[in-house]
């Protein structure tokens, strides 16, 4: 329990430390910022955050440093309109504005990472491509962005922007450990490092990061032979070499790699249950070469990159392991941006992408491949100093569906100082995965309960979205109000076609069987209070309907929200209290919906600068010790119980 005493003692020191000590810059590689002034995800070009043509939230490096982050779910769960749901096998997914988690596109520095859910059941591996020590900020766009990014961006985009080399060598080292109060497993550790700087001044720079982390298995309270949360061990790293041959050009070569080992204790569901361990080993790689140019007449950007992911599975006690699965994506994309006439910024570009799936169940040959290409155009039109209009469209050519069009139109108006009004709409699509379209695909699922087959007659999922919002900022406080409407057609699910309900004989086929509509409201406010206090909060109302059954969609809470009270009298200490509320929702189990109750998670976190380049941080997650399994057996994922952590960050 020495770690618990250390955490409690550190929190006490934060509150009692004298405020008269000299304030210094943040120990991370860059000085702290409240919010980045510029974002890139909404238009693929730099735009001021306030007037970016999208509903966009930025989690900056300072916010990331205030709490423990194991993967992107820990970053995103405090974002308005974002909820965490279950992906199966104790894993979690991310839903933006009630859209399915597979409708969120994940990027690292604008590059796609493998959408693993399209090839591997219950996958969440796209959440772990970049460690927190490498992140400069995370930009989250709520709403469809297929007009720029194509398929998979129906619900929104999460873009991790990593730290890059500067004119001087800078770096940081972070170490963090945590444990649960009840000793029921779940212990964690995290060790990350970053370094970046010049090899040849003004010509050649290098940026490096690496991370090792782990979380122990968390047994169920009712049966310690089963896992509430799986065990995880992960290592990852990256190196980027940046060459600037002149003031106008930059060439980057990036290599990113990682390994993620998972294991959990589970049991068969037959008449004679057998307990066994189920383990996944996932290796991922990305190789990228990019060129950017800033010329007198405009800007250019060209990239070529390959992403691979390989999963192998092992099981114990005589059970049958899942087959090995491999994925590979080769992508070449480019963009040219010019200002042809006053008030217009025109971007045109294209993308070529080849996907390959290595899966013995997907085809007789064991390999499926698909190729697609796209062109897009976007005009950022400044009509007046206070009114801008962004319009664009992307045209994707798919092997099976031919051309798919994804248009978008968005207006931003700032009629008064501090007041920003936004409104827009767009259409997007998500093509079926290679295995879903394969007539040769067949797999046994749900521990042998049924068999799933592919369907070459599937149609792409189509989403149409509209939104409007208003934000007013003045003298340290802000209020936000937004509304959105999403209509989705041709949702792909499996449906029983033969021997329904007969274990071991039931046959299911991928089919376009559902239409859905999701509407909602987003409210938010923040204010600067006396004595170094800041208060912020948001609330999301969600109304979802499966238009096939006229029932609400599963795992879409009608009410959710977040609140944070932070005390930060200077730049050398802070204490914050965070709360997350998730309202009542329906969970799906064996094709039936069951209601589960609402819950609230509260966390206390603090930090203190001990030296110019040394921070200590500690906290308690889930202060109320909320156990979802105790609330209802139908929750699709678990939350750790009360959890204590202590960490250090040193920089140079």
Distance between the termini: 32 Å
Number of domains: 1
What structural category arises from helix and sheet content?
mainly beta
Helix content range of the residues, please? under 10%
Number of strands: 37
The H-level CATH homologous superfamily, spelled out, is: TonB-dependent receptor, beta-barrel domain
Low-confidence stretches: 1-36
Task: Please indicate the percent range of residues in DSSP E strands (runs of 2 or more).
Answer: over 45%
What about the largest sheet? 22 strands, antiparallel, barrel
In round numbers, the mean pLDDT is: 89
- Computed CA radius of gyration, to the nearest angstrom: 24 Å
Overall 3D shape = globular
Any idea of the CATH topology?
Maltoporin, Chain A
Please identify, by name, the CATH architecture.
Beta Barrel
Provide a count of the helices: 6
Report the top-level CATH class: Mainly Beta
